[in-house]
Amino acid sequence: MIYLDNAATSWPKPEMVYCKLLETIRSGGGSYGRGNHRMASRAGDLIFEARRLCGQIFGFSNPNDVCFTSNGTEAINLALKGILEPGNRVITTRMEHNSVTRPLQKLGKYGVEIIKIDTSPEEGMSLDQLERELKSGAKLVVCNHISNVTGTVNPIAEIGELSNKYGALFLVDAAQSAGNKKINVEEMKIDLLAFPGHKGLLGPMGTGGLYIRQGLVLNTLKEGGTGMDSHSLEQPVWGPQRYESGSLNTPAIAAMAEGIRYILDETIESIEKKESRLVVQLMDGLEKLDGVRIFGPAKERSRGSIVSIQLKGYDPSEGAVILDEAFGIAVRSGLQCARDAHENLGTLNGGGTIRISPNYFNSEQDIQHCIDAIESMCGKG
Amino acid sequence: MIYLDNAATSWPKPEMVYCKLLETIRSGGGSYGRGNHRMASRAGDLIFEARRLCGQIFGFSNPNDVCFTSNGTEAINLALKGILEPGNRVITTRMEHNSVTRPLQKLGKYGVEIIKIDTSPEEGMSLDQLERELKSGAKLVVCNHISNVTGTVNPIAEIGELSNKYGALFLVDAAQSAGNKKINVEEMKIDLLAFPGHKGLLGPMGTGGLYIRQGLVLNTLKEGGTGMDSHSLEQPVWGPQRYESGSLNTPAIAAMAEGIRYILDETIESIEKKESRLVVQLMDGLEKLDGVRIFGPAKERSRGSIVSIQLKGYDPSEGAVILDEAFGIAVRSGLQCARDAHENLGTLNGGGTIRISPNYFNSEQDIQHCIDAIESMCGKG
Questions:
Q1: How far apart are CA A178 and CA A246, in angstroms?
Q2: Fewest CB within a 10 Å sphere: which of A40, A116, B4, B196?
Q3: Chain A residues touching B225 at Cβ < 8 A
Q4: Contacts of B343 in chain A (CB under 8 A)
Q5: Paired residues of B260 in beta bridges
Q6: A253/chain B closest Cα distance in angstroms
Q7: Which are the contacts of B380, defined by CB distance < 8 A and separation ≥ 6?
């Protein structure tokens, strides 16, 4: 099997991720913040180390500025619902994942005003339009760093600068960039960074997190036992525990930390470089084929490790099934849970696209095999 | 290390739980509901099998009546916020965990009326008072099955009967009973059952779920990608996917299913019987010691596998540290994230209790070692 569906979840994981997951769950009970025995203390050490590594990879210095969630979607929900109140204005793009558009749609019903600004699959969010809208006032700007459909890279440093200039908070959905594109929340003036742990960070499923800039206190999405301030009927006000009610997924978070350690050792730069090379190879190969339509930025531009295509004569889902069954290649088809992005792309009613998403563990041979398979399907094989 | 903190999280797990976790994460990518390649299909099969086993252990026939959450607390939050609206009346006890009291406290601020009825550490919720309050009308009754502080067993079949009679929905927090006490949602007239996966069900952390009786549609706690109805800006209305936005924690859920399979093989009855025997042995031993105060039901009554004590001359947290450091015994001290229960017990301002919670994997020797340790601490050693 050639796995080219890393934008859904990455596979394989570095060996240490598997080892740490198993070692942590085998070696003892103990729940983070619950209990004063050595197993619970060890859970505390593991969680703190994971927070520290998140700070290292995302550029913040206080490990307690990140809370852990069960996935990126939960982190986005927490950020949006933790910040936005009826009457607030929020600015977003026309290229968001349903993890952003659907919570916003719901908040819209409660009186939050949602502005969706023009977004080009080539360049991302229009900065001119963003500035015009910011001048009318906004509580929050939210967008993805990289589109999960086209790989389009939003100019997040510029968006952060503008948001900051006009007093709006800036939330970034890093689902497709955490671990494979450089992110520095302080330099990029990001107030809230939502990320999954099981994609680019190479951790297990069931992990994710939200960086919250110091000083911001969000409304909570869930309340319950936090292992601290148990005396009170209210959630603690400070500390990541405010947002982490219930038992944390310690073994998976400890394993995600090993994923981050692996990335820091390899360096983000070398990961990005290799993925870019594979993407260019893929696009080079596909561009030569009749019947292949490639969406998103031109080959010369920066893009995430995502290439969405349509094949003449194939419904995207049918195309993906053939790639799997006849060629042993795993890709994702359809709308990729991103309604607005496909509407913007004009592919909403055409069955979406076939999305090919290699990562650092793929080889040039994998990509060539994929190109050859698609060539066969286009009748040139 | 003798692990007697199973009410926080169970340890060890059955061997198959470790194996399934590792096998699932190692053997392929693929995210439930995302993609049409064989790895994604396999994730779908694993999730469906886990839903089916939940139905088997909790007595419901449609596997799609359960949605998975990251822990029990999330399931409770989803149930409470998914059902209750301003102006609704909710009845609960004075022995709840913060996972119930804190979300209720928040809902109270939004106009939900909260009635906390008398609850005896011996017998649980007062059925007389419950009926009186139900006569005044209520949208929901919520209580734990077993107290996480005292092991008190609530008469949930009777509570279900009464709630049903007066048209109130019934939500059970099964944090301390799922997997070690018989639960049948249909027979017990339970409309919503919230459970963790990493305690009595013997699964990994990061798992839990909410059974939702057919026909009930809850407001969602999170929205986002669901792998279905992606075309719409709204969440799907039917199916567990409505409540499962974002990538599901497939490997851990598949491993939890192995925990359930283990329990079904051993039978709940034999697990309950062994745990009861260990609890009686523990109470027998502790009752003989001067300076030990035991809370909760008398030895003759049914109780969960939880014994809370105070030791004369020791602050509970200090006592727990000594048990760990000098005797290698892991227990939990303090308030166990259950403010109301300790207030009801009169232990809120005394530093709470030392909670000893054995499970099926403990031996009589473990219990004897614990009794001996406490005897030493009481100056009789």
A1: 25
A2: A116
A3: 73, 97-99, 102, 337-338
A4: none
A5: none
A6: 10
A7: B289, B290
Residue-wise pLDDT tens digits, A57-104:
999 999 999 999 999 999 999 999 999 999 999 999 999 999 999 999
Nearest chain B Cα distance for residue A227, angstroms: 6
Scan residues 154-193 of B and list those with Cβ closer than 8 Å to A: none
132-161 in B: which are within 8 Å (CB) of A? none
Residues of A in contact with B103 (CB under 8 A): 222-224
The residues, ordered by sequence, that sit 6+ positions from A161 with a Cβ below 8 Å of its Cβ are A189
Q: Residue B380: what pLDDT? A: 52
CB contact under 8 Å between B247 and A196, yes or no, is yes
Give the tens place of pLDDT for each residue, A142-200: 999 999 999 999 999 999 999 999 999 999 999 999 999 999 999 999 999 999 999 99
pTM of the model: 0.97
- Number of other CB atoms surrounding residue B253 within 10 Å: 30
CB contact under 8 A, A330 and B40: yes
- Residue range B279-290, pLDDT digits in tens: 999 999 999 999
Structure-block tokens of residue A144: 């993805």
All structural domains of chain B: 2-10+268-377 (3.90.1150.10), 15-266 (3.40.640.10)
Give the H/E segment covering residue B310: strand B307-311
Of A26, A35, A71, the CB nearest to B246: A71
Q: What are the angstrom distances between the C-alpha of B281 and each of A277, B285, B377?
A: 66, 6, 19
Any residues with CB less than 8 A from the CB of A319 and at least 6 apart, and which?
A311, A333, A354, A377
Half-sphere exposure (Cβ direction) of A307: Cα atoms closer than 13 Å: 28
**Residues B223, A105: C-beta atoms closer than 8 Å:** yes
